[in-house]
Design goal:
Blueprint (H helix, E strand, L loop, with lengths): L1 H21 L8 H12 L6 H4 L10 H17 L19 E5 L2 E9 L2 E4 L1 H15 L6 H11 L15 H10 L8 H6 L1
Antiparallel strand pairs: 1-2, 2-3
Helix pairs in contact: 4-5
Length: about 190
């Protein structure tokens, strides 16, 4: 009887340990923990986008915009086949300027260290729409569209958190509507989108 009780206790401990290994607690103390937290809380079996958006550096985007961006970044990272175990798991001393680039061939996706915590940078957040178009949708803007983008971007004030993009119909419509908004009102540019 004692043997059975002891075997039952051991089996319970082993199964509890196996189950708890699948659970992940949010952490942004290292670059690896940040990426794992992002991927874990966006994954459909553990989805909690309210937690996942805490992997972004503080920004002025709406919660819904951040949730869309965090899902798009998840798709980009999956497409680029990030080796999570290759991401540093050290808290400090890994970079001089508190910046950690996740992909050598894609420097727009990087983390910054702020107050002993790691976050996806503002520049990464701004680049998500164009990176999503390039890597997930496999859409590149035409040469004419790129020239138009360069012409328009110089007129957008820095205070506006908007990335001009004509790569997809959605982004073209969004750009059109941005030039009809009060802060960037320019019907001529809106008509060209």
């Amino acid at each position: 009887m004692l043997k059975h009780l002891l075997l039952f206790i051991i089996a319970s401990l082993v199964s509890t340990t196996a189950i708890s290994q699948d659970d992940w607690e949010f952490s942004n103390s290292t670059p690896q923990n940040l990426v794992k937290s992002h991927l874990y809380f966006v994954n459909s079996s553990h989805r909690d986008l309210d937690i996942a958006i805490f992997t972004f550096e503080e920004n002025k985007l709406s919660v819904n915009t951040q949730k869309k961006a965090i899902k798009d970044l998840y798709s980009i990272i999956k497409k680029l086949n990030l080796d999570i175990e290759g991401v540093s798991n050290r808290r400090k001393g890994i970079t001089k300027d508190d910046k950690y680039v996740l992909f050598a061939n894609q420097p727009k996706i990087y983390l910054i260290r702020d107050n002993r915590r790691w976050y996806y940078s503002i520049e990464t957040i701004k680049a998500i729409p164009s990176l999503y178009n390039k890597y997930v949708l496999n859409v590149e803007p035409t040469k004419q569209g790129k020239e138009f983008q360069k012409e328009i971007i110089k007129d957008i004030p820095d205070s506006v958190n908007f990335e001009f993009n004509l790569g997809t119909p959605y982004n073209t419509i969004l750009s059109h509507l941005m030039f009809l908004s009060d802060s960037l009102y320019d019907p001529a540019k809106a008509a060209r989108c």
